Amino acid sequence: MTKEAILGAIRRGLKRGPLPADQRAMLEGRLASHPRHLIPARSRLPRPDQVALFIANVEKEFGTVERVPDLDAIPAALADYLAAQNLPTGFAMAPHPELLGIPWSSRPLLQPAARRAEASDQVSLQHGFAGIAETGSLMLPSAPERPTTLNLLADTAVVVLRASRIHGAYEEAWDRLRAEHRDQRTGGAMPRNIMFVTGPSRSADIEQTLELGAHGPRRLHILLVDDDPAALPPGEAEAPPPAAVPGGPAVPGD
């Protein structure tokens, strides 16, 4: 059924024709402006505190986070995590350019396979589009370079997320998606599927007993790349380069 057929059926049910021009213009303006509702104050924080809130909320929901300085540190961090959890070194990986460019050869035992996940996969590595501090959620839109199956099938889901992509509120993550995503076929801003992941899968439907991995991954581990100097904890920001002193050794710049 086409869009016009669906709208026509709705109009017949409401017993009216198309909207008058003034009402149509008002609704189109509202859709284009994306007006804000109330945004929780808990996410209105300085950048270091915003990232700290994201991490705290992830951990509150049974996820884990490890901060790494750059993408080159991902192989060592992932290898250590897999070893600590007694997991295999082979994993399905999103065919995203950032992940494909990681120097995996620095850890030869790791066996990344750039593809969508299969039911037999124990570990998946996904590329995180955005994080939301107010709930500790990941925003994972579907795309050829971000297969949705990586979010669902593997028992252990690992996500690489840049600190610069952590936002305070959901509205800001939606803004980023609209700004960066354009569907090549339709020209629209929305992908076919968007998943919000808050911790590993869990359920307490049976006798109110919490069971992890009920209908998805039982582990969620985030490798957080510290690419945003403004988001580093106090005291961890890079010091200014030494300033040269004529006739003497370099001293820290003032």
TrEMBL record:
Entry-linked Pfam families: LUD_dom
InterPro entries in UniProt: FTHF_cligase-like_sf, LUD_dom, NagB/RpiA_transferase-like
Low complexity bias spans: 245-254
Coiled-coil boundaries: none
Provenance organism: Siccirubricoccus deserti
Domain of life per record: Bacteria
Gene3D superfamilies recorded: NagB/RpiA/CoA transferase-like
Ranges for region Disordered: 228-254
SUPFAM superfamilies noted in UniProt: NagB/RpiA/CoA transferase-like
Boundaries of every LUD domain copy: 122-225
Protein name per the record: Lactate utilization protein
Signal peptide (UniProt feature, chain positions): none
